[in-house]
Design brief:
Residues 23-102 form a coiled coil. Helix content is 46%, strand content 23%. The protein is of the alpha+beta class. The protein is globular.
Length: 364
């Protein structure tokens, strides 16, 4: 049995290595073709300028004109061939990236199903939440899409608004943008990453945030955070349950939320959005949640969750990402907005360290 598991794991590792090698090979081919395409575009432009100038002056000969025209036609044909090849490689590149993402998703599912199998862990496991007396009503892919669409509209309205404040400070490349209210704060943190595409960064980020262990590892230990997967809807949508306890007051708040990734006009987005908590509570007895062996309860203390990460293309640079982390944080008895804002900045830097690399290793 153990030998079979090792063989299967070795096979999956070889598959991941093959996909990764093929992917980077395609990246190198794309880079070379982009350079060749740029050179041909330059030659083509110069050739057209020469032809226009000679036509205006009417000083070129019949033979010279035919020769120049033939040269230009050859450049046009070569340019079109390279453009077609570039499109084919771009499609293949996207397919390879999606295949790599599917391998990561499969690995996550194995982790969820396998549980504690004695495998080595890179991080300590998060505090577990016992939900044996509760049942979650499953969500459909269509319901996830509707939540994502509605949330994206709200996000666009906030991002397009000019009603915000900024400290003007830049910490390790991160820039802030805030809109404060009495009981909540809307925020965005933004940073530019080079040497990677939005799809590549999305795949790395999804590997971290779609599992309880990875997501919990982004928060500080002082947050006393507990996470559990309630449902893996599909490769792009996961439903989780979260509890945050105040270490001093022992008060806690809970959230049921969707983690969803999807394509948007400017790139890709990962959404963290609360869903109807009655899906979890209406089928349980007593309406309480057992957090640990002592039977502590959080009752009806619920916290709305609405955050997102946005991976946008940088204009004029196919190998760079403009990354945004934003959302709305609410003040509660467990965590106030000031604590949240400090935690958010630290969370962004932990995210960078896990998904990209530690900030002090980057040259912005």
């Amino acid at each position: 049995m153990q030998q079979g598991l090792q063989t299967a794991e070795a096979k999956r590792a070889r598959q991941r290595m093959y996909v990764k090698t093929s992917y980077y090979r395609q990246q190198n081919v794309m880079k070379a073709l982009r350079q060749e395409l740029h050179d041909l575009e330059l030659k083509y432009s110069q050739s057209l300028q020469q032809l226009q100038y000679k036509q205006q002056q009417q000083q070129w000969s019949e033979a010279g004109g035919n020769e120049e025209d033939t040269y230009s036609v050859d450049l046009v044909e070569r340019y079109m061939q390279l453009s077609t090849k570039k499109q084919e490689l771009q499609r293949e590149n996207q397919e390879m990236a999606l295949l790599a993402a599917k391998h990561e998703t499969f690995r996550l599912k194995v982790e969820h199903w396998g549980g504690s199998d004695g495998a080595p862990m890179l991080e300590p496991p998060p505090i577990t939440v016992e939900l044996s007396n509760m049942v979650f009503e499953p969500m459909t892919v269509s319901e996830c899409h509707h939540i994502a669409i509605a949330a994206y509209r709200e996000i666009c309205a906030f991002l397009q608004s000019n009603s915000y404040l900024t400290t003007g400070a830049v910490l390790c490349g991160w820039r802030d943008r805030l809109r404060e209210a009495a009981d909540h704060v809307k925020f965005t943190l933004k940073k530019r990453f080079i040497g990677i595409t939005p799809m590549e960064l999305l795949a790395r980020a999804w590997h971290v945030v779609s599992s309880p262990r990875g997501l919990a590892g982004l928060y500080s230990t002082d947050m006393r955070l507990s996470l559990k997967v309630l449902q893996i809807v599909d490769d792009h949508n996961v439903v989780m349950y979260r509890v945050i306890r105040n270490a001093q007051t022992q008060r806690a708040v809970q959230s049921v939320f969707l983690v969803s990734r999807f394509k948007v006009a400017s790139g890709y987005m990962v959404l963290f959005r609360s869903v109807d908590r009655n899906r979890l509570r209406k089928l349980c007895q007593g309406g309480t949640v057992n957090l640990d062996d002592q039977g502590d309860c959080v009752g009806d203390n619920w916290l709305d969750m609405f955050t997102w990460t946005l991976f946008e293309d940088e204009p004029g640079n196919e190998n760079a990402v403009v990354f945004s982390y934003g959302g709305i944080v609410y003040s509660t008895e467990a965590v106030n907005t000031h604590t949240w804002m400090l935690e958010i900045l630290l969370l962004a830097m932990r995210w960078e360290a896990k998904v990209v690399r530690p900030p002090f290793m980057l040259g912005d």
